[in-house]
Structures are given as structure tokens and as C-alpha cells.
From TrEMBL, chain A:
Domain ABC transmembrane type-1: 12-219
Upper classification of the organism: Bacteria, Pseudomonadati, Pseudomonadota, Alphaproteobacteria, Rhodobacterales
Organism whose genome encodes this protein: Pararhodobacter aggregans
InterPro entries: MetI-like, MetI-like_sf, ModB_ABC
SUPFAM superfamilies reported in the protein's UniProt record: MetI-like
Keywords from the named record: Cell inner membrane, Cell membrane, Membrane, Molybdenum, Transmembrane, Transmembrane helix, Transport
Name of the protein in its database record: Molybdenum transport system permease
PROSITE patterns, alphabetized: ABC_TM1
Membrane topology: Multi-pass membrane protein
Localisation: Cell inner membrane; Cell membrane
GO cellular component term of the entry, any: plasma membrane
Domain of life: Bacteria
UniProtKB/TrEMBL annotation, chain B:
Lineage: Bacteria, Pseudomonadati, Pseudomonadota, Alphaproteobacteria, Rhodobacterales
Keyword field: ATP-binding, Cell inner membrane, Cell membrane, Membrane, Molybdenum, Nucleotide-binding, Translocase, Transport
Any one GO CC term of the record: membrane
Keyword Translocase: yes
Highest taxon listed in the record's lineage: Bacteria
Keyword Transport belongs to the record: yes
Start and end residues of each Mop domain: 289-355
Protein's UniProt name: Molybdenum ABC transporter ATP-binding protein
Residue intervals of the ABC transporter domain: 5-231
Length: 230, 359
């Protein structure tokens, strides 16, 4: 694949890295929040639901700016984390954070639906057989929601691969550090003669997105077969 | 090991206020739907926390509102057979069966998978998924799953209600076999199931226990008709004498011969036979020239009129106490009352195979 230059490779690998970590790290939180929204009644539930969905509705630039003033080096959270060696601003980790936040509502929606499809009576049955709450979750609930978890993870991954607005606002567009696929395409389009590399990256984006969707479809079908049937 | 339950719980308009003792064997909670049976069983299972009461299995206290004890469900060491099976769809039959074993305490007595699978006839199903099983098969797996958790008590909430007659007949014998192994609390609104399985009957009405005691005693009481007089019937204990070539089996109950359509059990086996009250005819004199084969002389114990034109008469015969459902008009015409001698006539073919069970 020598038709891709080193700068383009850099952007592709960085995008995959950012999307991978964004998905992996947000997954446990996504499952926890989906569980909370699907199964628990608590005061302020509507507020939590709204907060989770906010990145879906807000202009990405706004989300990026909010991240910047919160997680920036002088932000309330960023300032606290900096002495611990955790820095988001203008690093690839910041790009991952932005991607995770933007993909979170999609992930939670998919997982929440699969939680709602699990019959609580099966969980009751497991508890009568001696399984504590944690074991019930691990041996009954989790396997049954697996298709939804996979679907949510793939959606979040795809969203992360394509994230642009919040990322560029929060962590800028630094080659090798925060220049993801989308930012790289944008940069190439800003310079004369950049259409060639831009087009190649567009092709790569399409292939990656399709590949992810197909893989998830296959996985989901296999899991559904294993889980399916009452 | 016996189970002692006292529960008081209000849910909206419904007040459950019940107490009973379940000695070893099968204790059937018997009553109409809405009488509080399932609520009681769920309280024993810990799926519901009653507002007040005390529940103990042997000397282990599961719940005591006064002492603030509430053992969570997973620590109660139960096996619960639900009406709808509730098998785990993502696990094979074998994994379903062994599910409870992962959580059983180390020292617990271990049921053998092979033995249970053979007893329930599910050996060939072990590698299948619950989705591929028939209703009867699912229910047998559910019973096996409960048993293999090595429970101190099995709960069964109308485990046969979702099955057709043939499947019910297929499963009833398995519960009869369990009767000797572990105490069972069994919810039912079927008089036939009660007669077939119960060691002890607890009759529930509108959240209250109206009667409890040994099955034969409670069922022979004409006042006990929680699911309607139509379902009334008494139990006779009998021994198989021989099988005749014409398809009849000869049994003996209290020294009296009893002819029934061929039963499955070998000569010498002890059986319980449910005689439905509407299959018994009463006659003052010994009837002559009648096609019915079973005529038992006896004495009327009690006549109880209900709503409508019917009455239930209990008759003490040499074979045991029988119930007969007759019209009030006939009861008056025959002058039936306590102490009156009469003959109870049972038509052989009226006794269906599902009314005959092992003891």
C-alpha cells in the first residue's frame, strides 16, 4: 500500500488507536449507565438521561469547547488530573476522550435496549439457584445483552473513527498527535493539490467503516444464534 | 425437616395473612387464582419481602420481621420450579442443569447429574438448547435444575399449568418420585394434582388459610371446595391385587375389591386413587342389575348443601371416606343424613389414569 504516504498512514493508525481506546474505556461506563437507565428508578433520572444524550444534540464544537474548559490544563478536572500525569489537552488521549464522549449516547442507547429485552424472571430464577447479584449479572444478564453490547461498541467505534468537530476544538489538529482521519482529510483539502491524498483517505474511511459494520453484523448474528430461542 | 411459614403482607386491597406448617413430603398450597398462593411461595423464596412474619426451614430462619432477619434469595438454598420453566436460553440443557451446582456450598450433598437425568428422562437432551425443547421437556429440565442445586426445599408454582393433559401425565410421576427426596412446597389450583401429589394440603381463600392437614383428611371434607364443587373428590389408598385379561385391574382398598381400568403399577404396589365426587352415585338399598362394578356399603357422615341445586355427601365406607355429588332433591328424597346407611356406586371407567398415582 505504498500509494499512501507516511502522513496518511500516521493519521489512519492514530484514528484506529483513538477509536479503539475510546470504545474500550467507555464500554464499562456505557454498560453501567445503560443498566441504571433501563432498570433503576431514581430521582434525577431524566437529568442523567438528558446529560448522556447531550453530545448527540449539541453542536460538536460546543461539546469540544466544554471539554476544553473542563479537561484543559487549567480546567477544574484537567487541573486536578495533571499532577497525576494524566493530560488530555492537545494529546491523543484528549482525542480519545472527545471521541468517547461523542460516541457515548449511541453506545448507551443500544445497550439500554438490550437490557430492556432481558426477562427479569430469568435473573430471579438464577438467584433462586444460589447466584448472588454479581453472579447473576455475569452469568445471565451479560451473556443475554451481548448482542446489544457489541452493536453499541461498533456504533461508538464508527462514531469515534469519524469524529471531527469536538476533537479539533478540544485537542486541535497536530500531525502525529491529534490529527485523526477526519482532521487529516480536512487539512489536505485546505492546501492546493491536496485532493489526491484527501481522496485516498476518504476511500480508507469508507473501507474501515464498512469493515466494522460487516464484522459487527457477523458477530451479532453468531451471538444471537447462541443466545436466541427461549 | 419441616417448613414453618407465617406471613402477613398487604398489597393494595389484598391482604395476605397466612400461617402453615409443612411436614416432610409434598405440601400443596391449594386455592383459586388470586388466593395468595404465589405470593406465599415468593415470600418463602425471598423474591418478596413480607411486611411481617417468620419463615423457617428446619432450624434455619429465612425471614423474621421481629428479629430483622431477611436472608437474600441466593442464600436460601432452594430449588424453584416456575410455571414457565425459565430455562437460560444461552446455556445448553447440561449447563442449565449444573447451574445451581456452581453456587452450592462445598460441603453440600451432591446430586448426581446422571441419576437425575435418568430419573427425569432427559439424558438424550443434555447437549440441546432450551429453545429446541418441547414444553414437557423444558419442565422436566427445570425440575432437574432445581433438584441439582441440592436444595433444602423445592418450591413449585403451578409447574404443570402451562402443559396439556398428556404432558401433565408425563411429569406427575417425577414429582411423586421427588416426594421421598426433599420437602416440596407445591402451588396448585387443580384438585386432581392435589389428590395425586399432596402429603399435606393447605387450603387458601382470599389470602387466608381456611384448612390444613393430611391430604386424605382435608380432601374428604365436603366443606373443602376451594375451586368449586365440580372439582371435589376424595382419595382412597389401595393395593394392586392383579391385572385381569379384560383390561381391568383389581385393587383392594380396606378389604374391599375395587375394579379400575388397567393401572400401570405392578401387583403389590400401593396406590392412591382419586374418586371424583361427581362419579359417585348413592343408593339406599343394595343396587341390583347395575352395570357399575364397584359398590361399597357405607354410612353417611355429613351432607353439605352449597349454592345451586347440588349437595356434597361424605360417606364412610370400608375402603375409606368417599365424597358424592348429588342433587339436593335426591339427598332429600333418599332421606340422606348423618348415620344413614347407603351404598356408594363408582363407575370403573370414570377413574382416569391421571387419578391414579404411586404412594
Amino acid at each position: 500500500m505504498d500509494w499512501l504516504g507516511p502522513a496518511e498512514w500516521q493519521a489512519i493508525i492514530l484514528s484506529l488507536k483513538v477509536a479503539f481506546w475510546a470504545t474500550l474505556v467507555s464500554l464499562p461506563f456505557g454498560i453501567a449507565v445503560a443498566h441504571l437507565l433501563a432498570r433503576r428508578a431514581f430521582p434525577g433520572k431524566a437529568l442523567v438521561n438528558g446529560l448522556v444524550h447531550l453530545p448527540l444534540i449539541l453542536p460538536p464544537v460546543v461539546t469540544g469547547y466544554l471539554l476544553l474548559i473542563t479537561f484543559g490544563v487549567r480546567g477544574p478536572v484537567g487541573g486536578l488530573l495533571q499532577p497525576l500525569g494524566i493530560v488530555f489537552a492537545f494529546r491523543w488521549t484528549g482525542a480519545a476522550l472527545a471521541a468517547a464522549v461523542m460516541g457515548f449516547p449511541l453506545m448507551v442507547r443500544a445497550i439500554r435496549l438490550s437490557f430492556e429485552a432481558v426477562d427479569p424472571k430469568l435473573e430471579e430464577a438464577a438467584s433462586t439457584l444460589g447466584a448472588s447479584r454479581v453472579w447473576v449479572f455475569l452469568t445471565v444478564t451479560l451473556p443475554l445483552i451481548l448482542p446489544g453490547v457489541l452493536a453499541g461498541a461498533v456504533l461508538a467505534f464508527a462514531k469515534a473513527l469519524g469524529e471531527f468537530g469536538a476533537t479539533i476544538t478540544f485537542v486541535s489538529n497536530i500531525p502525529g498527535q491529534t490529527q485523526t482521519l477526519a482532521s487529516a482529510i480536512y487539512t489536505f483539502l485546505q492546501v492546493p493539490g491536496g485532493e489526491g491524498p484527501a481522496l485516498r483517505l476518504v476511500a480508507v474511511s469508507v473501507v474501515l467503516a464498512m469493515g466494522a459494520l460487516l464484522a459487527s453484523e457477523l458477530l451479532a448474528r453468531r451471538v444471537q444464534k447462541r443466545v436466541g430461542g427461549a | 425437616m419441616s417448613v414453618s411459614v407465617r406471613v402477613s403482607h398487604r398489597q393494595g386491597d389484598f391482604l395476605l395473612d397466612a400461617a402453615f406448617e409443612a411436614p416432610p413430603g409434598i405440601t400443596v398450597l391449594f386455592g383459586r387464582s388470586g388466593s395468595g398462593k404465589t405470593t406465599l411461595v415468593n415470600a418463602v423464596a425471598g423474591l418478596l419481602r413480607p411486611q411481617a412474619g417468620r419463615i423457617a426451614v428446619g432450624d434455619q430462619v429465612l425471614f423474621d420481621s421481629a428479629a430483622g432477619v431477611f436472608l437474600p434469595t441466593h442464600r436460601r438454598r432452594l430449588g424453584y420450579v416456575f410455571q414457565e420453566g425459565r430455562l437460560f436460553p444461552h446455556l445448553s440443557v447440561r449447563q442449565n442443569l449444573l447451574y445451581g451446582r456452581w453456587f452450592a456450598p462445598k460441603g453440600a450433598r451432591r446430586e448426581d447429574l446422571g441419576r437425575v437425568a435418568e430419573m427425569l428422562g432427559i439424558g438424550p437432551l443434555l447437549e440441546r438448547r432450551p429453545g429446541d425443547l418441547s414444553g414437557g421437556e423444558k419442565q422436566r429440565v427445570a425440575i432437574g435444575r432445581a433438584l441439582l442445586a441440592s436444595p433444602g426445599l423445592i418450591l413449585a408454582d403451578e409447574p404443570l399449568a402451562a402443559l396439556d393433559e398428556a404432558r401433565k401425565a408425563e411429569i406427575l410421576p417425577y414429582f411423586e418420585r421427588l416426594r421421598a427426596e426433599v420437602p416440596i412446597l407445591y402451588v396448585s389450583h387443580s384438585a386432581a394434582e392435589v389428590a395425586r401429589l399432596a402429603t399435606t394440603v393447605v387450603v387458601l381463600e382470599k389470602g387466608r388459610v381456611v384448612r390444613q392437614g393430611p391430604a386424605a383428611e382435608v380432601l374428604a371434607d365436603p366443606a373443602v371446595t376451594p375451586v368449586g364443587a365440580r372439582a371435589a373428590g376424595a382419595i382412597l389408598e389401595a393395593v394392586v391385587v392383579r391385572h385381569h385379561a379384560d383390561g381391568l385391574s383389581e385393587l383392594q382398598a380396606g378389604g374391599h375389591p375395587l375394579f379400575l381400568p388397567q393401572v400401570g403399577q405392578a401387583p403389590g404396589s400401593r396406590l392412591r386413587v382419586r374418586i371424583a365426587a361427581h362419579d359417585v352415585i348413592l343408593s339406599r338399598g343394595r343396587p341390583d342389575g347395575l352395570s357399575a362394578l364397584n359398590i361399597l356399603p357405607g354410612v353417611v357422615h355429613e351432607v353439605r348443601g352449597g349454592e345451586g341445586p347440588g349437595a356434597i355427601v361424605s360417606v364412610d365406607t370400608g375402603a375409606g371416606r368417599l365424597l358424592a355429588r348429588v342433587t339436593r332433591r335426591s339427598a332429600e328424597a333418599l332421606g340422606l343424613g348423618p348415620g344413614v346407611a347407603c351404598h356408594a356406586v363408582i363407575k370403573s371407567v370414570a377413574v382416569a389414569p391421571e387419578d391414579v398415582g404411586g404412594r
